[in-house]
Structures are given as structure tokens and as C-alpha cells.
Amino acid sequence: xxxxxxxxxxxxxxxxxxxxxxxxxxxxxxxxxxxxxxxxxxxxxxxxxxxxxxxxxxxxxxxxxxxxxxxxxxxxxxxxxxxxxxxxxxxxxxxxxxxxxxxxxxxxxxxxxxxxxxxxxxxxxxxxxxxxxxxxxxxxxxxxxxxxxxxxxxxxxxxxxxxxxxxxxxxxxxxxxxxxxxxxxxxxxxxxxxxxxxxxxxxxxxxxxxxxxxxxxxxxxxxxxxxxxxxxxxxxxxxxxxxxxxxxxxxxxxxxxxxxxxxxxxxxxxxxxxxxxxxxxxxxxxxxxxxxxxxxxxxxxxxxxxxxxxxxxxxxxxxxxxxxxxxx
Length: 328
Prior knowledge:
This protein is an alpha/beta fold. It is built from 13 helices and eight strands. It has one domain (6-327): Rossmann fold (3-Layer(aba) Sandwich). The longest helix has 29 residues, at 138-166. The chain is globular.
């Protein structure tokens, strides 16, 4: 095994640096791609990146399975109306990522309509609950992990048998900058996204022999409606929190659930466009991680160093072929 020093880790290589920065270059030099013949299933399409992505990939020619929970609902009807008006190949399906049964049924229906295994899974559904870690009770902790982590695992397990049988596929977990760096008082959001990053990387190695890629997308802060539900969950937590846990963080607790969603001007379409580029790339050439941000990208150096560490540590081991395939 090569000798790894702090100096060598920070020095890096040009190749790994290029991979780490791919997402930034992709959004700066956007070129529309043709996704005709590609089936894409997206979770959490009632708003945000999921809704924008469903429209965008369909306009690029993809067959899109836009999923959301609690159908029928106005957001589903609105998207169906848009698809009919524009002649887009969008199918609105119900999937609640908190339910094993709902996930299994929704994926099975998508595969039936598609006439076979899906090409792409975009694990987009997720929530945030803010506040000090001590204030996060087990109800909040279970909900955010069940949605952001276990929900993604349910979806992966549902689509992989078909993808493996086909010998192809692409899984795209939507992580975050906060899946690599940590902001205080963000609840367990970073904890769930760190877990998603680890799950995605492990999957990437294990799926190399099956011809299936994993590309983790790491958005920065964008002005989507994610803060609306975050406020609902966070206010509920604040209202039931016990004083013995909140007393040490009075100023922070007083602001829990009061985010107004302002102060962000980056274009949320950066994320669907970056995913479009990933889908269009040749299998085996996609980067493991794609940062997407309208501003600062703090995770780029972390991505580079961890990639070099993995290759240096396991690149010559029995796992070396898979490790190198993912990072090279």
C-alpha cells in the first residue's frame, strides 16, 4: 500500500481534481442534451428540484416517472396538465418513500409502463428539520433519517434487480454541500446527507461489475420551496420541545421554523441541467460526485482528498479494480 502523508493528500492529482470540479464546469458551460429513449424515475416531484427536473428531462425527450406522496393532490394534477398541454411523456405515480409497500408498488408500476427496467433513478425526496442537535427529539430524528436515508435505500433496493438484469443503469442521490461540510444548528440534516454520501459511494463500488453508475449530486443553497416544509417540521419540533433541552439555546430556538426563504438568487435549474448532463454521459465516465452551486463550492477540496485517499488506501487491494474504476 502506498505511503499516504498529509502533504500527499493535499497535493492531489490533476485527474482527481478534474473529477471533483466536473459539476462546476458543467453548469457554467451548459449544452442541452437529447435524452430520448431514457426512462427516469424521480422521487419528491411535488416541488423543488424534483418538479423542475420532471419537466426538464421530459422536454429533453425522456420518459419521466414523476412520483410524489398523497395523490391525488393539486401538484400532481398541475404537472399532468402541463404534460398534456406540451405533449410530454410524464407519468404521475404515487410513491411515499417512508413506506416499503408504496415504494415497491410504485416502482413495479413504473417498470410495467416502461416495459422493462428503469434507466435512471433520481433519489430527490428529502426534508430538513433545523435547530440544535440536543433539541432534535426521537420523533424528528426518525422522520428525517427515514426520509433522507432509509427512503433512498428503499428506492435503491426496488430498482436494482431490474437494473442488474439489464446490465445498465444510473442512480443519482441528491445530497448537499452539507453532506460534506457542517453548519451548526442545522439539526440532523448533515448527518443524513453524510450517510447518503457514504451509501452512494459504497454502491458505486459494488455496482461496477453490473455496469451501473452512481453519481452523487451536491447542490448548494437554492431558492426552492424546501424551506416551507422545513418550517412546518421545525415549528412542530419547537412547540413540543422540553425546556430542559431548549434552555441552553434560547436565541436559536426562538428562530426555529421562522425561515423566510429569501437571500438566495442562484438559478434552481442548475441542478436539473447538471443531472441532464450526467444522464447523457457514457456509462463508466460519470463522476462519483458532482457539486452544483451558484456560488462557493466548499466541498470540492474534500471530494478531491477523499477520492485520493480511497485510491491510495484501497487502490491496490482486492477492491482496487472497482475503486479505480469509480475514481478514474
